[in-house]
Each structure stands twice: as C-alpha cells, then as structure tokens.
Design goal:
455 residues; alpha/beta; Aminopeptidase; 3 domains; eight-stranded mixed beta sheet; three-stranded antiparallel beta sheet; binds zinc ion
Length: 455
C-alpha cells in the first residue's frame, strides 16, 4: 500500500491557484482522527477547494483484506489533487482498518467486522469515523470495498459476477437524506455510462442467496451505507470493486483502477450538482413523524433480474436472467409515530453509552419532577416472522404512566438523525437495540420495556 512520501511525490506541487493538494500546504496536513486497537493512527487527508461548497468523504479499507480499496482511495486522492473539481472539499480516510490491513484480515485486531459495527460502535476505529462524520458533516460519503465474484450460490449455475464495480445506496426505508430516488437513479445511470466509456462493467449490488433468492444489499442499519445515511442524514454510496481471482478465465481491469474510475464518476456527478445536493438536506424531523420499523424485500411485477453474467467455464459474458426469485422492492410492514422524546433509564448504562457514541443529543436535564410517558408492555406470543433482522417481532401494548424525570435521560426526536432513535429504541423495531444481548434490553413476556416515549 502507498505510504505518505509516495503520496507526497504524486500529489504534485504545493497548492497553487487551483487549490491543489500538497501535504505541507494543507491546513493541518493529514489529520489523525483516532487510533486503531493496536494504536495505529487513522489518517484523514483533506484536499481540494477551500471555498468549499460540497464536502465529500471517502471511506476505504473497513475490511483489512480488501487492499484494492485503500489503494484506489490513495490513487484517486492523487488524481483529485492534480485537477480538483471546483467547489469540492475532499476528505479521504484510505485505511479505516490499519490493524486488519497489516494482518491481512477482514476484521480488526479485536475480531470486529467494522462494517457491521455502525450501531454499537464497539471498535475504536468506527467510533473515530463517526466522531469525524459528526464534526465534519459531509454532504456525501463514499464507502469503498471489494467483492468476491466467485460465489458458491452462483457457481452452482456455472456463473461468475463480471461487474468491475457494483454500487449500492442506502436501502433502509426509514432513512431520510433528502436524496430523491430519481437523483439516485440518475447517479446510477451516469456511473454506468462513465464506466462503459472506459469499457468497465457496473451494476447495482446484487446478492444471490443459497435458497434461490436474488436481492440487493441488506436493509439492516449495521453497515456504514445505511447507518451514516440514517444517523447523519447524509447520502452514502457503496462501491464494491471486483476482486480478481487466479481462476478468472479472462483478464479484468485491475480492481483498484476500476474503483478509481467509479469514485471519480461519483465525485464528478456530485460536484456538478453540488448546489442541489446542499439544498436537498432534509429539514428538521417533525414530531409525530411516521417511521417504518419493520420491512422486507418482496417480489414485484418485474419478472427477473437481468444482468451481465460470465460463464465460469468459458469466460464469455452475456446478459442473462439470474436464476432464482428476484426481490427488487422493499415493503414496510410496520410503522410507528415518533414521540417528542425517548426516555432511557439512567440504569441502562450500556444503552446510554451506545447513544453517546452515536453522538445523539440529550435534552437538558429538567431536574426533579414527573413526566407523562407511554410505556410498552411486551407480549411475545403474537410474533411475526421477518425475513431479515430479528426473527420475532414482539407484540406490544402501551400504557400511560408518569416517570421520575431524575431517573431518566431524554433524547429529543427532533434532532438530525432523530429517526435513528426510533429504529434503535422501539421494542417492535426490527433494527432495535434489544437485538444486542450485551445491552440488557430483554423483551420479556408481560414485562415493561425499559425505554419510554414522552408524548
Ligand atoms: Zn468489504
């Protein structure tokens, strides 16, 4: 992987009229935003237009065994610096998992998959990234990975993914980034076009599951793509470069080069519409907002997923219908109205720690007194099977009671990312904090759920 001095050499001359990116000339140079488990620094490189209109954050290398992702981020940084688009300020964390990349492992030194740690933030690496995003407030985040094209589920049909880059977007329906589906589709179309011009294949990230289910990325909020979009209301794009394999019967473009091309296409698209992107920031969340808390991928009228596929034995690439049932649409099966605030008991120390790591704001302490609130009583019998996330959604009823304000911390829902509170704190939420046994939020039959709603 490239090092600092190599980058320096490639970054060109000191900053000129075009706002280029020399390490010395940058305010603060490279910024250390935190440290890994083994004490390696997490370095963010800032670069681009000081009169920034659009802030763009590239996050690469969450998985330590995907070395093409950091390589692509560094190469892109050098290219950006030599010809920075107007009005764009770039921050690049090219190695988000330096311990994993030193050891060649997907996970960090504490065996945590960082891209599944965006709810609990139990790793110092993910905590540092969230603190940075909370402070720097990018308008767009690009999360760079590589994927394995040789999948057993596809190989049983004699197929391999030939896409140089797969792209995906935030998919959890509770997410409000102000980014319309139309804007998303335009980005996808533009990316495909730019990649095709460079003879590269690009498609939407697609999963083929063993029982013959074909769908897109998970709806869960554990990963950077969904959680950044939910918590910071920031559009987040996932780019996955095709990992090369010795078994490939034909030559593919080097994965990091394909990724550089795709990052460039996303940045170009964003810089052209930077004013819209800034305007598209959603307004403050409303009290009594309706938030989807259970959802799943479902069939729609579209018959099959057609995409380019490579024959595993002959190497030829054709557009084919992928075998299996295609679930292209997302259906919300349960919604809830947000309260004014959620009341978390001070005794729920682990949960309060997670909410603090999520940088969610607390209401100022109101001192002693009693507050009317709704408490959930859990009835587990009427569970609903869900295809993703928790297996059983509990059936609940609410009861009004007053609570002792001194014993609770209140989290107002009318803050940026207030919907994250709803997803994490509602007991019927498929994405709730009760899924994590370590947090001590059991859904016990006929008990009251510890978190209350201040209405
Ligand atoms: Zn990855």
């Amino acid at each position: 992987m490239g090092n600092e001095s190599e980058l320096l050499n490639r970054a060109g001359p000191t900053r000129g009229a075009r706002g280029g990116c020399s390490l010395q000339a940058l305010p603060g140079g490279s910024e250390t935003i935190g440290y890994s488990v083994e004490g390696r620094p997490l370095l963010v490189r800032h670069c681009g237009d000081d009169g920034e209109r659009l802030r763009l954050f590239i996050l690469a290398g969450q998985h330590g065994d995907e070395s093409d992702a950091p390589k692509a981020a560094l190469e892109y940084l050098a290219e950006f610096a030599s010809n920075p688009p107007k009005g764009v300020r770039l921050a690049v964390l090219w190695d988000a998992n330096p311990d994993g990349s030193a050891a060649g492992t997907r996970r960090n030194a504490r065996d945590i998959d960082l891209n599944r740690d965006h709810v609990l933030l139990s790793a110092p690496e993910t905590r540092a990234v969230h603190l940075f995003v909370n402070r720097w407030r990018p308008n767009l985040i690009v999360d760079v990975h590589t994927y394995r094209p040789w999948r057993p589920e596809l190989l049983q049909h004699g197929m391999v993914f030939p896409q140089d880059v797969m792209i995906d977007f935030p998919t959890n329906p509770a997410i409000r980034t102000g980014w319309t589906p139309a804007a998303r589709n335009r980005l996808f179309a533009r990316l495909k076009q730019r990649m095709a011009e460079a003879s590269l294949r690009c498609d939407r990230y697609t999963l083929v599951r063993a029982p013959g289910i074909v769908r897109h990325s998970t709806l869960d909020i554990l990963d950077a793509r969904n959680m950044f979009a939910l918590r910071y209301e920031t559009p987040t794009v996932l780019l996955e470069g095709r990992r090369s394999s010795r078994e490939d019967p034909r030559i593919f473009t080097a994965p990091h080069r394909a990724l550089v091309k795709s990052i460039d296409a996303v940045v170009e698209w964003a810089s052209r519409r930077r004013q819209q992107m800034r305007r598209e920031r959603p307004g403050p969340p409303q009290y009594y907002d309706t938030v989807p808390i259970q959802c799943r991928y479902i069939h729609s009228n579209s018959p099959a997923r057609y995409m380019e596929m490579q024959s595993a034995s002959f190497g030829d690439i054709q557009v084919v219908g992928i075998p299996g049932e295609y679930l292209p649409s997302i259906k919300t099966v349960r919604t809830v109205r947000t309260p004014r605030a959620y009341a978390v008991p001070r005794t729920a120390a682990k949960l309060l720690q997670v909410l603090a790591r999520q940088n969610l704001e607390r209401a100022p302490s109101s001192g002693p007194g009693r507050i009317q609130a709704e408490f959930y009583r859990i009835w587990c019998e009427a569970g609903t099977e869900l295809s993703e996330g928790s297996d059983v959604a509990p059936f609940t009823t609410t009861e009004r009671k007053s609570l002792d304000a001194a014993k609770y911390v209140l989290f107002p829902t009318s803050q940026v990312g207030g919907r994250a509170l709803t997803l994490l704190l509602e007991p019927e939420s498929q994405f709730g904090a009760h899924r994590f046994p370590g947090l001590g939020l059991p859904l016990e039959q006929a008990s009251f759920y510890p978190v209350a709603r201040v209405v």
